[in-house]
Specification:
This protein has one domain. Strands 1-2 form a two-stranded antiparallel sheet. By secondary structure, the protein is mainly alpha-helical. The chain is globular, with a radius of gyration of 15 Å.
Length: about 150
Amino acid sequence: MALPSVFEKEVCDNFIARIHLLTPQTQPLWGKMDATKMLAHCNVTYEMVFENKHSKPNFLIKIILKAFVKDKVTNEIEYAKNSGTAPEFIIKDDRNFEIEKSRLINYITKTQSLGKSNFEGKESLSFGVLDGNQWNNMFYKHLDHHLNQFGI
């Protein structure tokens, strides 16, 4: 079954409404991140697309990611609780909740406004060229997983 499309306004509005339910005090149902770090963690996905602040993995790592991780990230099967994550996604420093929240909402809105066609054949830092459905699944699954982690 196809996942809802992050390129549709209604889906994005739903994500944004859920994000507005978060507070810095919202506790996770599982995992170690607090709400602020979770928002910053979710922003990394979009930083890798829209910002030039993360380096590409080397050739060998990219082959491993494409062979063993790409399908898990881009298919329609939801992530298991307490799944592992790449080192770039681990937020170690303190962040500002409102800034991270605003950044995430802006990234969601930007992705939706650019539309699926903007992502057709776009290269991912880690997985190579993806189609629009793979981008959608990656964006949708990751954000939905973490909002569910916080019960929203």
